[in-house]
Please model this.
Amino acid sequence: MVGIDPRAVSRLAVAIGIGLSGLAGGALAPVYAVHPLMGASFVFKAFAIIILGGLGNIAGAAIAALSLGVLESVMGGFLPVVMVDALVFSSMIAMLLVRPQGLFGRGVRV
Model:
C-alpha cells in the first residue's frame, strides 16, 4: 500500500538476525567451549529477561537485564552456580505471580 515490500523487509530482518547471532557466537567462542548447544543457557536467560521486562518493551527488557545481572553477581558469591541459574527462573516466576504482564508491560483485555 505505501511502497514497502514486506518480503524485502522480512529478508533484511532475517539477515540482520543471522549476522547478530554469528557475531554473538564469535564473541563467545574464546570464552566458552564451542559446541552446537553453547548458547542454550543464554537463550533461557534472554527468555526470562523478555518476560520480566514485558513483551515488546525494550526499556523494560534493559532494566530487567540489568537487575538480573546485578542479582546474579551479588548472589553468585553466596550460592552455587546451579542455584544462581535457578534464581533467574524463580525471580521470573515470582514476577509473573505478582505482575503477570511484566515490569513495564500493559495489561490487555481479551
The helical segments are 6-28, 40-53, 58-75, 81-98.
